[in-house]
Amino acid sequence: MDFLRRFMAGRYGSDQLNKALLLLGIILIVVEWITRWQWMGVFILALLILCYFRMFSRNIQARYAENQWFLRKWGPISVRLHNMKLRFQDRKTHRYYKCPQCKQRLRVPRGRGKINITCPHCHHQFIRKS
Ligand SMILES: [Zn+2]
Prior knowledge:
Blueprint: H1 2-8, H2 16-35, H3 40-55, H4 60-89, E1 94-98, E2 105-109, E3 114-118, E4 125-129
Antiparallel strand pairs: 1-2, 3-4
Helix pairs in contact: 2-3
The structure holds zinc ion.
């Protein structure tokens, strides 16, 4: 353990981007295993090398900047995925509409027939079947 600590001193280590790369690597390994596309091994190897390169890198500033870039890109995607999950979870009890005016997403209980919806964001009114 002491050797490892000394070895890692001044090196970057792991971050969210590396975890995402590793996860992608694992997914690719499974895909390769299912499809038997052996050429994917090249990408998997490249991913793993990239992971290790970033972990053991001494250029902490550059690695930090890469991770910040990744988090900026990933943030909106993860919000989207989270929203999709919520929508899927209450698909039986609620319907989702987009306000035609401001594109705000609205959540309405199902089974109320035709209803007049007022957007809480811009107060635009529109009629939808729930
Ligand atoms: Zn609106």
